[in-house]
Amino acid sequence: MLSTARVLRISVSLGVVGIASAVAAILARHFIHYEGIVEDISAWGVFFTVFGVVYAIVAGFLLVTVLTRYGALSQTIEDELNAVESVRDFLVYFSEEQEAPVRAVNRSLVRYLQSVARVEWSEMADTAIPTNSDTSEELYGVMRAMGSIHATGERDNAILSTVIASVSELAKMRTRRIALANERLPPRLRLLLLFMSFVLIASFLAMGVQSAAAHVFMTSSVTISAYLLYWIIADLDHPFYGFWNIDRSPLDGLIERFESEARAPCSDSSSGADSPPGP
Length: 279
What we know:
This protein is mainly α. 73% of the residues lie in helices and 0% in strands. Helix 4 (137-147) packs antiparallel against helix 5. The longest helix is centred in the first third of the chain and has 50 residues, at 41-90. The radius of gyration is 28 Å and the shape is elongated.
C-alpha cells in the first residue's frame, strides 16, 4: 500500500500539473485566436479520432508490456523463495547421520537469502549497471554444501536427487529474476509516447472552444491523464523503486523465519523448525 507521504507527493504533483495546464489553456485562449477558430472544431474532431486511436494503441501496448513484466518478475521472486523453502524442507528427510552437512546447507541458504536482500536487490534497483546474472558465490556455497552430503542408501539417494533438482530450480529462478529486472522499455518507444502526449495536449490548447471553463476542463483532464499514464509506465518500468514497486516483504519475512529457526535450540534433528543453524 502507498504511504501517506507517497499519496501526498502524488497529489501535489497532479495538482501542479492541473494548475499549469489550466493556466496554459487560459493563456492560449488569449494568444491563439484567428477567424473561424470555432468552426474548425469539426476538423479537430477528425484529427482527435485518428490521433487518439494511435495514441491509445501505443499507450496500451506499453502499459500491458510493463504490467506483464512486473507480474512475471513478482511471480518469479515468489517461485525463487518457494525453491529455497523446498530445499530447506526436503533436508528434513535425511537421517541424523547427515546432521552436520544438513546444517551446512541451511547456513548456506541463509547466506544466499541475505545476499539477495542486501546486495542483489540494490543492484537490481540501479538502472545504470545491469545486474550480473552469473551464478553468485552464495549460490555456489549452497551447491558446495550439498556436495558434502553423502548418501548412504537408496532413500538418501532419492532425497538427494530431489534436493539437487530444487537447487537447480533455484538457480533458474535467480537467472530469470535478474533477466526480468534488467529489461527496460526501448527509449524510442518512451520518446514516442512522450511526443504524442505533448501533441495531444498542444492540440487541446490550440482548439477553439467558446466556453473558457470547458476549455480549461478538457485541457486539464487530458494533461493530468497523460502525465499520470506516463508516470505509471515509467514507474512500472523500474520495479525496484518508486511508487509502484516489487514488494520485498516475503523475502524479509523468509529471512526472519530462517534466522529465528537458526536461533532455536536444535534438540530434535528431525524437526524442520530446528534444522536450519545460525549463519
